[in-house]
UniProtKB/TrEMBL annotation:
This is NAD(P)/FAD-dependent oxidoreductase. Gene3D superfamilies: FAD/NAD(P)-binding domain. GO terms for molecular function: flavin adenine dinucleotide binding; N,N-dimethylaniline monooxygenase activity; NADP binding. Belongs to the FAD-binding monooxygenase family. The keyword Signal does not apply. InterPro entries: FAD-bind_Monooxygenase_sf, FAD/NAD-bd_sf, Flavin_mOase-like. Keywords: FAD, Flavoprotein, Oxidoreductase.
Length: 496
């Protein structure tokens, strides 16, 4: 960990905020631009992003391991089709070490503000440990960084432990305890089956039933791992096969009627696991599959069918010192409350403290709907790049491939600046508007806007500002053909 000397000019070519996949990938893929003059700020005590924070029981990836990894750092060590949290975190740490990033990592160093210095054409980063400056900033905080805690009246009066799945309190022993789980997000789908056999009772407060498909997880045999490691082309072939199959699934998201096929399989999955018709009715979604995130699990439904589990769909009115009162006025006495309610996706972290040349923050600039050229750069905010920015999320496959395509675009933008001898680069307003218009056109008629649900994919204006609504191949083509005319460069003395 590099110490900060507040009496020196702590300046870097590139400052990266966040050390998950996006941050580590940026430091590696942009290395020829910063040539070692890079710093990675991390608010936590170690790198890892969501795969450090989400260490709840049963935490694992919902995308096949072979696809949820960098293309430039393949691994033959995955032991299951869907990697566990500990494996993914270890992989990310190994990649960071192999590329010499650990000395550039500043842990326990939260960034408090990022302000553009017009006079010196650089960003000023105020952190909890001092001030640094950088020519370029990559915000790699990710869209799933800040847990969403529902506003439950009188929650502070509850006498037992309360925590979110992304901040799991491992000091709390749930054995023979009465537990309330609030929410049925992707994390709840995973941890509920793990804690259900331990607890004396579990009440699950469900607002909206998710569509759940079979996970079909399995160990990867030693023979397959050996072939992947030693036989040329096997790794690429396995990756290409999974990639193609997942890209094919996009057709149902873009043409919602095709989702009826998946819905039939999901209903059969539910019927096989849950015999009680009343419980089955509670767990049956009333919207088109894909409108919200599709979840995968082989043990979620069987866990809910156990006698020590109750599914409550009436909603929560308020908390008491003993538990939670639902909207029917019934008090449910519990010993612990766990939130499986996902993350705050209404804005990207830190965008309310990133201040551009015009004096407004990125959040103020956006208003109620975030937007960016290629989901990555914003007109009026030079030399600033957003990893997992607006319209970079996915509903059908691995976001790691989107991040790598973003880095291809950032590389090209920084190269344009270097070639022109400029000090700054940013997209034009017209180019950003055109990209946003393309996204809106691609979203029109998809399941995300016509599926009959309310999801985090859409912002408060009803616009899709989170998902890329087309194929990864389509985004990759855009990222690989850099349009210089879509960008504005400036030198210290003017504009080019």
């Amino acid at each position: 960990m590099t110490p900060i000397d507040n009496h020196s000019d702590d300046h870097h070519v590139l400052a990266i905020v966040g050390s998950g996949f996006a941050g580590v990938g940026a430091a590696i893929r942009l290395a020829h631009h910063h040539e070692g003059s890079v710093v990675i700020f991390e608010r936590a005590a170690s790198l890892g992003g969501v795969w450090r924070d989400n260490d709840y029981p049963g935490a694992a990836c919902d995308v096949q391991s072979v696809l949820y990894s960098f293309s430039f750092a393949p691994s033959a060590d995955w032991r299951t089709v869907f990697a566990r949290q500990s494996e993914i975190r270890a992989y990310l740490e190994r990649v960071a070490r192999d590329h010499g990033l650990m000395p550039r990592l500043r842990t326990r160093c939260a960034v408090e503000s990022i302000t553009w210095d017009t006079a010196r054409s650089r960003w000023i980063l105020q952190t909890e440990r001092g001030t640094s400056t950088a020519d370029h900033v990559v915000l790699a905080t990710g869209a799933l960084a800040d847990p969403a805690i529902p506003d439950i009246a009188d929650l502070h009066t509850f006498s037992g432990p309360v925590f979110h799945s992304a901040q799991w309190d491992h000091s709390v022993d749930l054995t023979n305890r009465r537990v309330a789980v609030v929410g049925t997000g992707a994390s709840a789908i995973q941890f509920v089956p793990q804690i259900q056999p331990l607890v004396s009772s579990l009440i699950l407060f469900q607002r909206t039933a998710p569509w759940v498909m079979p996970r079909n997880d399995a160990p990867i045999s030693r023979r397959t791992r050996a072939a992947t490691r030693w036989i040329p082309g096997v790794q690429k072939l396995r990756r290409a096969k999974v990639f193609a199959l997942r890209e094919l699934k996009l057709a149902a998201f873009r043409h919602p009627r095709l989702m009826a096929i998946g819905e039939k399989e999901a209903r059969a999955h539910l019927a096989h696991a849950v015999a009680d018709p009343a419980l089955r009715a509670k767990l049956t979604p009333d919207y088109r599959m894909g409108c919200k995130r599709i979840l995968i699990s082989d043990n979620y439904y069987p866990a809910l069918a156990q006698p020590n589990v109750d599914v409550n769909t009436t909603g929560i009115a308020r908390a008491t010192s003993r538990g939670l009162i639902d909207t029917d006025g019934v008090e449910h006495s519990v010993d612990a409350i766990i939130f499986g309610t996902g993350f705050d996706t209404s804005r990207l972290p830190l965008t309310d403290v990133v201040t551009g040349p015009a004096g407004s923050t990125l959040s103020e600039h956006w208003g109620d709907s975030q937007r960016a050229y290629m989901g990555t750069s914003v007109a009026g905010f030079p030399n600033l790049y957003l990893m997992h920015g607006p319209n970079i999320g996915l509903g059908h496959t691995s976001v790691i491939m989107m991040l790598e395509s973003q880095l291809r675009y950032i590389d090209a933008a920084m190269t344009l600046q270097d070639d022109r001898g400029a000090t700054t680069v940013e997209p034009t307003v017209a180019a950003e508007d055109d990209f946003v218009r393309d996204v809106d056109d691609l979203t029109d008629g998809t399941v995300w806007t016509s599926g009959g649900c309310s999801s985090w994919y859409l912002d408060s204006t009803g616009r899709n500002s989170n998902l890329w609504p087309a194929s990864i191949a389509g985004y990759r083509r855009r990222a690989s053909v850099f349009r210089a005319d879509d960008h504005l460069t400036r030198t210290a003395g003017g504009q080019s």
